[in-house]
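Pinned message: reference record for UFSP1/2/DUB catalytic domain-containing protein
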Amino acid sequence: MEEENTAADVPTRQGNGTGTRQRNKEALQRLNLENVTRNLILRQIREYTVDIGVPLMTLLQGCLETEHGRSSIVALSGYVEHFESRLEEDLGWGCGWRNIQMLSSYMLAQDSESKDVLFGGAGFIPDIPAIQQWLEIAWLKGFDVLGADYFDWKISGTQKWIGTTECATVLRSFGMRARIMDFRIASSKRAAGGMRGKGGSHLDQPGELDEADDVSGNFSLLKISSSHPEECSDDINNESDDQSPPTSGEDVSAEERRLIVLPDQKEELHFLRQSPDDPNICLTCVEERKNSTFANHLHREDDADSTASNKEMTEQNTSGDSIAGGGCGTYLPDTDSNHKYMTDWIWNYFRAEGGSFCKSIYLSNRSPLYFQHRGHSRTIVGIERSKREGSSKEEDYLLVLDPSQRTRDIVRSLERKQGWEELVKRGMHSLNQSEYQLCYVDPGIAKEEEYESLKTLSSVRYLY
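Predicted structure (C-alpha cells):
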C-alpha cells in the first residue's frame, strides 16, 4: 500500500484542524479502493504470537476449576489468544489495537463465516500497521465518517490511540455485527473523562451539559426502560418498573437512583477515547508492564521467598487502592462508582443460551468483550460470581487479558497456578471510573441493507 497512500504525514496527535483533515481526506479518496484492498490482502503481515503449546484459555480454565476457599460459578469465553504490547513497538499507545487482535482471534477460531471475511479472508491476525490500513479502508467505505474526522482521516503509520468506536468500525467493515454498550454513573461529574460528543475530544467541565448531551440525550429526556429483554436481566427490569426519570435539575439521591436505559437509536455517536495530559503515552500500559514484571520476579521457581512475596502482593492488589481496573494508572477514580449493573450485564451476556457446563464453569458461546475506560482498554474473557467460605455476600470478578502484560508472564502463572489471579482477575473495587464501554460481536455476517446500516455507529446506554 506504500505506493498507493499519498496522504500527507501528520503529527500523531489527534485533531490538527480542518485544513489537515481535508487534505488527508482528499488524499485517501484519490486512492483506488479496490487496488488498495487487494494490495493490503497480499502484503499484510501475520502478527507475532508467543508459542505457548497449550491454549491460554485452557490453562485459565484449569486454574479456575482448582480454586479453593470459595463457592463460585464461572462463565468463560472460548479460544482467545493474548497479544502483548511490545516495548520497542507499541507499549504506551497500542492497547486498543491489541484488543482488536484478541477479539479477532476468537472470531477466526469460532466462526467460519467470520474467517472467510475478516481481514480479507487472510485466515490470520495481521499486525498493527495492517489493521490501521484496514481502518482507513473502512472510512473510505463510509464507516464512521465522524471518527475519520476525529483522526483527520489519517491513522496509518501513526501512534494514535483508539477505542471501542474504532474496534467496531474495523469489524463492521467486514460485515461483522459489532455492537457497543455504554455504562455510566449518571450522577458523576464529567471532568474525569466524560462522554465525547460528535467527533469531539474535549474535556467537559464539572456538572456542565453541552453539545455532547444533545447527542447522548439529556437526562430529562431519557425514559426508563420497562422492558428491554435483549439487553437487561429480569431483575434489572423489575427494579426499573414504576419509576420516573429524573427531570432536569433534580437532585437524585443514591437510594433513589435507578437504572435508565437509552436504547440504540441508530444515531452516529462517539464514545470514550483516551485523553491524558500526554496524548502519546498510556501510563496505565507502562505501569501494568512494571507490575507484570514484578509479579514474574516474585513467582520465579528459584525465589525462596516466593510464597510470602506472593501473599504480600495479593494483599496489595486487593486492598482497593488500585486504579482503573487493577493497574497503577494515573487516572483518579470517581466517587460512588458502583458498576453492579454492568457486571450483571456481563454475567447475563456470557451466560446466554447455547453454551455448556464443564464442572463449575459455563463455557459460553459469546465473543470476548473489548473493555474500554478513559486511559486504557483490556479484553474481558469471562466473569466469576462467587461467595467466600462462610460468607453470604456475592462477589463478581472480571476475567481479563491485558495487552500491557507479557504473554509469557500470564502463561507461566497459569501453568504454575501461582500468581495468576492478580494478573487475570479484576474485582468490583477496581471498577472505579465513572464510565465504561464494551464492544462485542453478534454471530453472523451482515448483507446488503443491514451492511449499509452498520456504517452509522450507535450504542445502547445504561445510566444509573
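Pinned by admin. Summary line: Residues 1-13, 189-256, 275-280, 298-336 have pLDDT under 50 and may be disordered.
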